[in-house]
Design a protein that fits this description.
- A 9-stranded antiparallel sheet has the order 8-7-4-5-6-3-2-1-9, with no helix packed on it.
- By secondary structure, the chain is mainly beta.
- Strand 2 and strand 3 form a beta hairpin.
- It has 1 helix and 9 strands, in the order H-E-E-E-E-E-E-E-E-E.
- 14% of the residues lie in helices and 37% in strands.
- The chain has 2 domains: 29 residues; 139 residues, no CATH class.
Length: 178
């Protein structure tokens, strides 16, 4: 009888440990390299980091790899974020690719995008939507998020290609012309 109790105890410990390990593999956190909000695309396929300067209304976006560690150059020259402040009308912000002689990035092969809008000055919270973004050949559509908290809660339990979700600040989801 003691042997059966021992086996049951060991099995319980093993099950708890494997469940915790599975949880760690399926949900881990990333740190935004520029201190912004990370949007996660697909099942950790790629990230987009948004950094807002509330004083100037400057918004930067960095396309990053699945671990949010390295830039990923994309072919788009721009993409639009529809910004819906919680107390004002929705407005579009067009982020344009940034050229950088130090990294060799050019329009059509850039991982950094920038915009400036007076409507972003002083804004600390908003709902956002990116209609379409293509990263490493994968098309992502209708990416919705809250800023700065992200939309982790909106993410489906199992990611399908094209799914996107968001991690908030500190790590806590357009292929052509416009």
């Amino acid at each position: 009888m003691r042997h059966a109790a021992f086996v049951a105890c060991v099995a319980g410990v093993w099950l708890a440990a494997s469940t915790a390990a599975d949880a760690d593999r399926t949900h881990h956190e990333h740190i935004a390299p520029h201190g912004g909000t990370l949007l996660v695309f697909g099942d950790e396929f790629a990230h987009l980091e948004l950094v807002l300067d509330r004083e100037t209304g400057a918004l930067r976006a960095y396309v990053l790899d699945g671990e949010a560690e390295r830039g990923v150059q994309i072919a788009q020259s721009s993409f639009v974020i529809d910004v819906a402040p919680r107390d004002r009308e929705l407005f579009p912000v067009t982020l344009v690719a940034v050229e950088n002689v130090l990294t060799g990035e050019v329009i059509g092969r850039s991982s950094e995008f920038a915009a400036q809008s007076d409507a972003l000055v002083g804004l600390s919270r908003f709902d956002g939507r990116i209609a379409k973004l293509v990263i490493k050949g994968q098309r992502f559509h209708d990416i919705r998020f809250g800023f700065p908290e992200g939309n982790e809660a909106r993410r489906p339990a199992a990611s399908a290609p094209g799914d996107a979700h968001v991690h908030g600040p500190g790590g806590e989801g357009h292929d052509g012309q416009h």
